[in-house]
Specification:
By secondary structure, the chain is of the alpha/beta class. The protein is 36% helix and 18% strand. It has one domain: Rossmann fold. The chain has a ten-stranded mixed β-sheet with strand order 1-4-3-5-6-2-7-8-9-10, with helices on both faces. Helix 4 crosses helix 5 and helix 7 packs parallel to helix 9. The protein is globular and about 70 Å long. The two termini are 20 Å apart.
Amino acid sequence: MNTITEDDIDFNFYLEVTEHKQKVRPPKEWLDEIVQEVIKPPKEVVCTLPWSKTESTFNFRPGEVTLYAGSNGGGKSLITGQVALGLIRQKQKICIASFEMKPKRTLYRMMRQFAGENIERPMYANKVEFFKRLTDRFHIFTKDHLWLYDQQGTVDMNMVIAMSRYCAVELGIKHIFIDSLMKCVPGEDDYNAQKHFVDHLTSLARDNDIHIHLIHHIRKLANEELMPNKNDVKGTGAIADQVDNVFLMWRNKKKEHDQHNGKAVDEKTPDAMLMCEKQRNGESESWYQLWYDNNSQQFVDSKEKVVMSFDMKGRF
């Protein structure tokens, strides 16, 4: 795991888009690229979500932006942390820029998901030995593949753009998680700023062949048990229009409330839904049923709640 701070980045340099003279090129340069691609087509890097049920219907493509939207406490940060672990398992370099949680808290939650159990109350008697194994394996798993940007609170959107460009150009990072849009554009009704920021993100992703994961909120619904739709994304409609993919995260609050109150529930009913409401360059817009394992804080494929093993080594 690596940490990026403001001191690491020359923001003025990385705020600047590529010089115009580098953008203006003779046709021969593109012709040469076309010939090379025809002779030896580049191997397409296909990145997927971490659940087996999603592999055939959704891919993370270079040059795109994916929006994850949901309510407060709806599981957006948890599920994107799990997505990030899944991308590391696919040998992808990622950076998490959470402006709502300190890196230590982000890491704690990811380590719990990685362990597949509650690391505060591990199933093993020897906690010291457990944590040694956990930290050693997590370090090996994330080494050279995970960076965290250490900055919390409201940030200038231009600094976020500069940070993302630095990650792409200098570190070779291919997936950048930004949590959340409202911390980059604090005015909920500043639609022009929201549109401007997301437009910059889409250009940045396209120009640097990276994938940007943007976390956002939905409007407060009349009832927290209601399922949202794409029109419930907070702010301007241009946000969902400009990004390539839109996921809505919904937790089954009725089931949670019934369980908390000791009422009988149907375990076949999912604990959450990850709803793909837009996939510009894909053929499917599927809704994925998920179940929540409280010990690991993982969202899993089925009601049996079999947790994922990210480094494929099994239990600790």
